[in-house]
Amino acid sequence: MGGTTGFGVRYFPLPLNTDLRVSLVKRPHYWEYALTTRQNDTTYSAGLFDNGDLAPTGISKIEVRHDPWKGVQYTGIIQWVGPVSDYTGNYQWKDAQGKVYGGNAPLSRFTAGYAFTTWKDRVRILNNVGVGMEQFNQANVRSGFITAPYTQTEISANYGEPIGKDVNVNLGSTVRLFTFPTYSRYQASIDVNPSIEVRPLKGLTLNASHLERFAKQNDRVPLSDLNFGRYRETNASISYRIDDKNDFSVNMIRTRVKANWTDKQYFLYNDVLFRFNALPVLIGPTIGYQWYPAAANNTRWLFSFSFAPK
């Protein structure tokens, strides 16, 4: 779930030697505020995060995620939503007109495992064991926690080949299997992700990618954030880099398109990105537009800041 109504910055890089990013966004009913950093293959984040446009409160979360491409893996997440007085059951809320919207459940999840690679690091095999605790509702009242041990097996593969000097094609895929032994449940999913990059002129780059996700399960899994479903998404962009190393100079002009075919949401973004020598990335204003035919009030102009590597 992601929201687009409000103003502020998300994951803004601070001018420090370490990669520390700050989020501060005023939403319709709450503030987002968070700090995130990644050091030595470990992501640390803490704060109140995005919970959609209509939620009465954000997601309070502390997360530590160590996920190198290969080697020891571990994750710890503590997530809370609330207190919320107008829950209607199953982590939903009503707006002023009585329409019901879905929410995020309070949960904690801890995992440990190991990943190794083969075929010149093109194939990654991950095995994790973990336990999750998620609060459930009964009779529209928060009642207690589901505790669910689980296993995770994931195989990812990427294969890319250049076509001449200016075209790269890549095909990525990921197969996942979650099992929940104490609930006799499982979920299997597969992602297929082809992409292409074309550089027809110096500084000009065209990118396009597509994601197809298929999923099968014998019942809804007990931990909602591990409940993968059918999903289709296409992304495309065209960017032009300007070779100017001066401070406060325009370094990139970019247009991006995103189509979420599953939820029928479509986005267009136009970025002008500047170089600031004190910052580790390019940054600049974005003007975008969102089409959401299923809900007229979600068709809107979008104004934000965007980033790109230097």
Describe this structure in words.
The protein is an all-beta fold and 310 residues long. It is 0% helix and 66% strand. The chain has no helices and 19 strands. The strands form 2 sheets. It has a 17-stranded antiparallel β-sheet, with no helix packed on it. Strands 7-8 form a two-stranded antiparallel ribbon. A hairpin with a 5-residue loop joins strand 7 (92-94) and strand 8. The protein is globular and about 60 Å long.
SS-based class: mainly beta
State the helicity in percent bands. under 10%
**Biggest β-sheet strands, sense, barrel:** 17 strands, antiparallel
Tell me the number of helical segments per DSSP (H or I, 4 or more residues long).
0
Secondary-structure element order, as H and E? EEEEEEEEEEEEEEEEEEE
